[in-house]
């Protein structure tokens, strides 16, 4: 999709996107989830959504998919962290979209929900990444989520974020290979332009 066309569609749906944003904010606020040590979790959601806004034209197949992509950005952690079920999320999506759009939206959220596990590796194992690769727009939204986390960690000087920066750098080869699909459909793409942001922040990880 042309970049200007994507931006025009975002503007046309701005009111609905803002409502989606506010609902997601409240869901995370209701479970007292923060980002970093003191920031509201909405800070992270905004970062992810802004990466989608910046690069979404590279993967978006049609106008009807713009709202599901933005919904996925704002709701991507609600099942995992905000005590929402698959049906809760679908019900929320149906307030703003038709049945087909809502299914695209909730499947993104579901795909990005970590598996049960005792460690970081167990929670994001092969089954988790396979679900992402098989779900339209999930590889892209997951990439946007990683960009947001990396940018934040690289901007902080505390020990915890410096440690996460090193973890993200070590994980990057496996992470990128795990979300890259063999499907040539643009909806499954992992744009090099978005990956470049990670390179700018982390340097080489080969």
Descriptive account of the structure:
With about 210 residues, the protein is mainly α. The protein has a single domain (about 5-200), classed as Orthogonal Bundle (Hypothetical protein af1432). It is built from 12 helices and 2 strands. A hairpin with a 3-residue loop joins β1 and β2 (about 40). It is globular and about 45 Å long. The mean pLDDT is about 95.
Descriptors:
Hypothetical protein af1432; 2 strands; globular; 12 helices; two-stranded antiparallel sheet; mainly alpha; single chain; 206 residues
Write the topology of this structure.
Elements: H1 3-12, H2 14-30, E1 34-35, E2 39-40, H3 42-55, H4 66-75, H5 78-81, H6 86-93, H7 99-111, H8 120-123, H9 126-133, H10 138-155, H11 159-179, H12 192-202
How many helices? The count is 12
What is the third-level CATH name, the topology?
Hypothetical protein af1432
Shape: globular
For the sheet with most strands, the description reads: 2 strands, antiparallel
CATH class descriptor: Mainly Alpha
Looking at this structure, what is the CATH superfamily?
Hypothetical protein af1432
C-alpha end-to-end distance: 31 Å
Q: What is the ordering of alpha helices and beta strands?
A: HHEEHHHHHHHHHH
Question: Structural class, judged by helices and strands?
Answer: mainly alpha
Number of strands: 2
Strand order of the largest sheet: 1-2
Residue runs with pLDDT of under 50 for 5 or more positions: none
Average pLDDT, to the nearest integer? 96
């Amino acid at each position: 999709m042309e970049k200007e066309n994507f931006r025009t569609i975002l503007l046309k749906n701005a009111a609905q996107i803002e409502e989606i944003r506010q609902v997601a904010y409240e869901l995370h606020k209701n479970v007292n989830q923060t980002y970093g040590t003191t920031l509201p979790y909405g800070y992270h959601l905004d970062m992810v959504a802004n990466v989608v806004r910046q690069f979404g034209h590279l993967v978006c197949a049609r106008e009807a998919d713009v709202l599901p992509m933005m919904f996925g950005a704002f709701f991507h952690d609600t099942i995992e962290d905000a005590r929402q079920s698959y049906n809760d999320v679908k019900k929320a999506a149906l307030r703003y979209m038709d049945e087909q759009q809502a299914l695209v939206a909730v499947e993104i959220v579901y795909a990005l929900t970590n598996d049960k596990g005792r460690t970081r590796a167990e929670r994001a194992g092969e089954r988790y990444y396979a679900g992402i690769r098989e779900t339209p727009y999930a590889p892209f939204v997951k990439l946007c989520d990683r960009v947001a986390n990396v940018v934040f960690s690289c901007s902080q000087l505390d020990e915890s974020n410096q440690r996460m920066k090193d973890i993200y750098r070590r994980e990057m080869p496996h992470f990128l290979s795990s979300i890259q699909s063999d499907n040539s459909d643009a909806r499954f793409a992992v744009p090099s332009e978005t990956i470049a942001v990670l390179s700018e922040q982390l340097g080489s990880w080969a």
